[in-house]
Design brief:
By secondary structure, the chain is mainly alpha-helical. The protein contains 15 helices and 8 strands. Strands 1-2-3 form a 3-stranded antiparallel β-sheet, with helices on one face. Strands 4-5-6 form a 3-stranded antiparallel β-sheet. A two-stranded parallel ribbon has the order 7-8. It is elongated. The N terminus is likely disordered.
């Protein structure tokens, strides 16, 4: 529920008749924003992107804007409750009439007490009740509710949720829930630096510093949006993130261990997904999810003869971490014994059987097998706790660094930089043929 609109009974304050549950026109939660420092109120008909109206609240002062908005909204609510048959145009015209006939500027240069002298420039004067036939209802408008993080996050998500991928949306929602629990109902209009430092300490109990910083980034995103849209005037989250204890706990495989992994993979049947899951992880450094969601059309042969896998989110259920993750990863024939012809044979068999997905079982089962069985079995006595599929990314990154690979080329493989790989019309940057040649030199020392 919006923190601006308050709950109202289903009967009018003027009449005792029961209101219909579904009026002819339904209104979405109000939205506030600033333009050139001036606050605005925007109302929209539920389900419509074109039927909306924005009105200037004629002030740069947030408190004055919110009080004015509350009065306007309450007056419109009263009007609507008494006229459930009112159309969108009726409601829009009523709002505009109220604004034009009753609202005066409350900026510093046009303060309501300007004729009292500069002594009163900072005095907050509640806006006059909007003149309607239902003034008695307006005069008892409820006090402003505390601006908790939970309430603020709901407003933020209502505005920004459409910009996030489903996976990111789920993660953001979970992070907001954790943040809200640890802020414990704090009214953010009156928060202090000490409040946020104490919040960070509570978050740090039982969590890695990197996880704490991730939650703080989510907090700061909501705070920045809230200030931009006039819900908060000041926040104290600058430099709140932890700076110590952030060293990665991810382990990397030694080159001897990588050879053992590939010897193990090459001993598995060419018809087994397990073989290609492990092999592709070793020679491309791709993320587990990126590898597991590959389909047959993602294996491409370029005009130059380079064979690569296309990491993308084209297809039902596919997703990538970010836009930089969309890339081509060349497959290096002979790297640690990788047999490209046999892999292409596996792809052809999938096509002939009418199977689009390369994975014979899903992302989660693939991760469980490779991390809990495949890697421990392959390494035997050299296995160490913490060595997982993602460690292959660290191993390849470390190897490229040791071989003096330019950072831009390494980022192209890892998917960490924008505009990294050129292929057909997909992007601009480092040609995929150059990346293929670089990987041959890194993965095949005798090349």
């Amino acid at each position: 529920m919006s923190v601006i609109l308050q709950s109202h009974p289903v009967t009018s304050g003027v009449t005792t008749r029961t209101l219909p549950l579904r009026p002819d026109c339904r209104l979405a939660s109000p939205y506030h924003y600033r333009r050139h420092g001036i606050y605005y109120l925007r109302l929209r008909m539920t389900g419509s992107v074109s039927r909306m109206v924005s009105v200037s609240l004629k002030t740069t002062d947030r408190r004055w804007a919110m009080e004015t908005s509350s009065h306007l909204i309450a007056a419109l609510q009263t009007f609507h409750m008494e006229r459930p048959e009112a159309s969108w145009n009726d409601l829009r015209e009523h709002l505009l009439t109220m604004v034009s006939s009753t609202l005066m500027s409350a900026d510093d240069g046009h303060h309501p007490l300007r004729h009292w002298g500069d002594l009163y420039r900072n005095v907050t004067v509640p806006p006059s009740p909007v003149e309607t036939p239902y003034r008695e209802v307006m005069s008892t408008a409820p006090a402003e509710s505390p601006m908790t993080f939970d309430a603020l996050a709901q407003l933020y998500m209502a505005d920004r949720a459409g910009e996030q991928k489903p996976s990111t949306l789920k993660e953001t929602t979970l992070c907001h829930k954790v943040i809200s629990e640890h802020l414990d109902g704090l009214d953010l209009r009156n928060h202090s630096r000490e409040d946020l430092v104490a919040f960070r300490e509570r978050l740090s109990e039982g969590r890695m510093p990197s996880t704490v910083n991730k939650l703080i980034v989510k907090l700061s995103a909501v705070f920045a949006w809230a200030v931009e849209n006039g819900h908060l005037t000041k926040t104290y989250d600058r430099k709140l993130k932890l700076t110590k204890g952030l060293e990665s706990t991810r382990k990397a495989f030694s080159q001897a261990q990588v050879h053992k992994l590939m010897n193990y993979a090459n001993g598995l049947p060419a018809t087994s997904w397990k073989r290609w899951l492990l092999s592709l992880g070793v020679i491309t450094g791709g993320r587990l999810k990126e590898i597991c969601q590959l389909i047959t059309s993602d294996v491409v042969t370029l005009d130059s003869g380079v064979v690569a896998i296309h990491i993308n989110e084209n297809g039902e259920g596919k997703s990538i971490k970010n836009k930089q993750s969309n890339r081509l990863l060349p497959l290096t024939d002979g790297a640690y014994g990788f047999d490209l012809a046999e892999f292409l044979g596996y792809v052809d068999r999938c096509k002939s059987e009418g199977i689009s997905a390369l994975a014979q079982f899903g992302y989660r089962p693939s991760g469980e097998w490779v991390n809990q069985q495949g890697i421990p079995d392959a390494l035997e006595a050299t296995y160490e706790r913490g060595l997982v599929f993602h460690s292959l990314r660290h191993s390849l990154a470390s190897l490229m660094q040791a071989k003096g690979v330019p950072v831009l080329h390494a980022q192209a493989v890892m998917g960490h930089a924008s505009h990294t790989i050129t292929f057909d019309t997909y992007g601009t940057g480092v040609p995929v043929e150059i990346i293929a040649d670089m990987l041959r030199k890194v993965l095949c020392p005798t090349y």
